[in-house]
Amino acid sequence: MKNQLLSINDLSHSDVLSILNTAAELEKITSGANKKLPTLRGRTVVNLFFEDSTRTRISFETAAKRLSADVINFSAKGSSVSKGESLKDTAQTLQAMGADAVVIRHGSSGAAQRLADSGWISATVINAGDGTHEHPTQALLDAFTISKAFPDRKNDFSGVRVAIVGDILHSRVARSNVLLLTKLGAKVTLIAPPTLLPVGVEQWPVDISYDFDAEIENFDVVMMLRIQLERMSNFFFPNEREYSRRYGLNETRLSRMKKSAIVMHPGPMNRGLEISASSADSSRSVIVDQVGNGVVARMAVLYLLLGGAPISEVLS
After folding, report:
1. Which of 144, 226, 229, 259 has the most C-beta neighbours closer than 10 Å?
2. Which member of 22, 39, 56, 137 is catalytic?
């Protein structure tokens, strides 16, 4: 693997399998009473978050601490950033503090790449979501969740049909999942109103549909996306009720899905808009599992990027 994770495109097929297999092994090791490993003791991981987050920040913090790394949480609100400090100045401050890894979440697409390429900092840079561009560790935890739900497929998703439904236009999760799931062999269909599909989506390695009901019974995975109202400055659909009627996952649609199919959502959820409360809490839902899987997937990323001992040595 490279010493950065900025995009799913940074990962080869073998890199992806290495991360997923390492996550599985780390899950076994930390499932008992002792959840901590000494592998990154003495290393410092900085969570540099310019956007609000709960799940991702806490997930990375937990992952780093379980590997015995020191963790610094840096939030733009209430910091020098809110007083006008630039990304460059912030990065140089972290460099002076001896950060070994910087997990960055930023509202601008390309911010993680900018930090990694700038020369301002020598630390490993991990993209925790940049604008509407990518969110690679979310895709990795989603793939790990799917591999656990379909153990007979293991890490080969050939024949697995995945529907990604909703606000594709503003979703970095959708972009990273399309890249990763197709890399693993899955067949992905994007389902959304035309106004919520990005320009050039026809060039993506996916099928496109505007009708959620047309083939819902054929999917193995239905991944619902949050409607990102905070990123919308125009009217992308008539109203929330109409959107929910046509593209929301409700009890009727849930009942038409394959018996073996699972429901996913990266969170946070708009219950009653893109997904009903009963669908989110149903036995088909693995949404809570995604949160737990996020910790071990991010442990695997940190472990591999920061040069942890070979997993075989940890197991021995």
Report:
1. 144
2. 56
